[in-house]
Amino acid sequence: MPAQPDPDLPVQKRMAEFIYQNYPQKLTLGEVAQAGGVCKSKCCQIFKKYLHKTPGEFLMAYRLQAAARLLRSTGQPITEIAYACGFNSPSYFSESFLKEHGRTPRAFRSMQQS
Question: Which of 6, 58, 65, 69 has a Cα at 20 to 30 A from 108?
Fold first, then answer.
């Protein structure tokens, strides 16, 4: 008997895709869950099951990944990058970036250029 496909997998993909497309905006758990057609608690369960992160952690990781890409590939000011990647505060962006990458956005950019 063939294994049944997991019905949560396409739901998870829809929710992740929603985050990829909307990460610069303020997103709520309800909006992410709605993108997958599930309630908030099911949304959290699915993220934990497949990605081992909460939806918020996944969003933050993606925003920081997008910021690192922009720091590497553009000369855009760091403050603009912070706002473009969905951060409301450049200082919170710098703090979060430092935690994730082990260096500030400015140090990350100068290391990439040398």
Answer: 58
